[in-house]
Amino acid sequence: MIFETLDTTGHEEVVFCHNKDAGLKAIIAIHNTVLGPSLGGLRMWPYKSEQEAINDVLRLSRGMTYKNAVAGLNLGGGKAVIIGDPAKDKSEALFRAFGRFVNSLNGRYITAEDVGIDVNDMEWVFRETSFVTGVHQVHGGSGDPSPFTAFGTLQGLLASLNACYGNEDVGKYSYAVQGAGHVGMEFIKLLREHDAKVYVTDINKELVQRAVDEYGCTAVGLDEIYDTDAEVYSPCALGGTINEATLERLKCKVICGAANNQLASNAIGDEVSRRGLFYAPDYAVNAGGVMNISLEIDGYNRERAMRMMRTIYHNVSRIFEIAKRDKIPTYLAADRLAEERISTIGKLRLPHLGVTAPSFQGRRGS
C-alpha cells in the first residue's frame, strides 16, 4: 500500500523513526532531491492515526519541493512529523532521539521549525545533528523568520499590484488582513509604513487591538473580513479560507497573503481565475522564511537574506506571465514553474546524496 502511494506521489524515501524509551514516533519524508538536499520543517501534532500522520508528511514534503523550486533554492523538499501533543509530550530525550535519526540521513534531510515546535526544541535536536536550521543566533542561526516572511510577502504583493493595476503604489489600495500573528503583524506594519488602509481580524482580540493601537488599523469581526471593500485580501493565518462560501463575498481584485494552502481546492483556484482575480500562489509568496533559513547552510548573512527576499517579486511576476501565456490559473502556473526548473536541473545532476559543505560540519551543539 505504501509503495503504491509513493509511486503516485513521487517520494524518494520515507523513514519511520521509533524510540520506545524516548516515546518517539516520527516520520521523515524526502520527496525530491534533484535540486539539492531536502529542507523542510518538523511538525508535532496529536494525529488521530498513523495513517493521518503519513498522509500529512507526504503532502507537506511534496509542497516543500515546489516551494523550494519556485524560490530558486538549490534545495529539494522534505518534511518530518512527530506524533504527539506539543503541550504535554515534549522532552529532551524525544528531540535528541529525533536528532539522531536526522543525523543518520547524512544531510539528505535538513530540519527546521514548524507547527508545534519552537527554538528550544530545535536546540535539543541540534545537540545530536548539525543538519538543523532555525537555531539560535549564537549557533549561526537566523532567529525569528517572521520579518523575512512578511517582507517576502510584500514583494509578492508589489508584483501582484503591478500585474493587476500596472503600478506598485501600496498606499493607494486597501487591505483585508486575516491574521495578526507573528507574520501577519509584521506584514501589517509594512503596509502601514506605506500609509495603506488596513482592515484586520484575528481570533486573538488582543492582537487585533494592538494592530489598532500601534498601527492605526480598522478592526473587523472574524467573519466580516470577507465583506470589506478592500482591493486586496491577505490571508495570513488559517488555510482554506478561499472557498465556496467566502469567494462569493470577496470584493477584492488581488489575493496575496502569507498563509499556507489558501485555496480550499483546485476547483476554487479555477473559479478564482475565471472571475479575473489576481491570486498570488501562497507558496511562492511566503517563501521568505525558507529562503532565510536556507542561508544558514552556507553561513548566514542578513544582508544577503534581504536581497534574496526581493527575488520573490520576480518569481511571482513570472507566475503571472506563465498564467497569461498558457491561459491557466496562477496556482497551476506556479506548479509549472517549479516542475520546469526541477526538470531542467534534473538533466544536469543526479539526486542529492547528502550535505558535505564545511559550514555544516562542526555545527553540532554541546
UniProtKB/TrEMBL annotation:
SUPFAM superfamilies: Aminoacid dehydrogenase-like, N-terminal domain, NAD(P)-binding Rossmann-fold domains
Descriptive protein name: Leucine dehydrogenase
Keywords, in A-Z order: NAD, Nucleotide-binding, Oxidoreductase
Active-site feature positions: K79
Taxonomic path: Bacteria, Pseudomonadati, Pseudomonadota, Gammaproteobacteria, Lysobacterales
Biological processes, Gene Ontology terms: amino acid metabolic process
Binding-site list for NAD(+): G179, A180, G181, H182, V183, G184
Classification via InterPro entries: Aminoacid_DH-like_N_sf (IPR046346), Glu/Leu/Phe/Val/Trp_DH (IPR006095), Glu/Leu/Phe/Val/Trp_DH_C (IPR006096), Glu/Leu/Phe/Val/Trp_DH_dimer (IPR006097), Glu/Leu/Phe/Val_DH_AS (IPR033524), Glu/Phe/Leu/Val/Trp_DH_bac/arc (IPR016211), NAD(P)-bd_dom_sf (IPR036291)
Organism per entry: Dokdonella immobilis
Function: Catalyzes the reversible oxidative deamination of glutamate to alpha-ketoglutarate and ammonia.
Family: Belongs to the Glu/Leu/Phe/Val dehydrogenases family.
Record's keyword annotation contains DNA-binding: no
Glutamate/phenylalanine/leucine/valine/L-tryptophan dehydrogenase C-terminal domain span: 143-350
SMART domains in the record: ELFV_dehydrog
Taxonomic superkingdom: Bacteria
Coiled-coil regions, chain positions: none
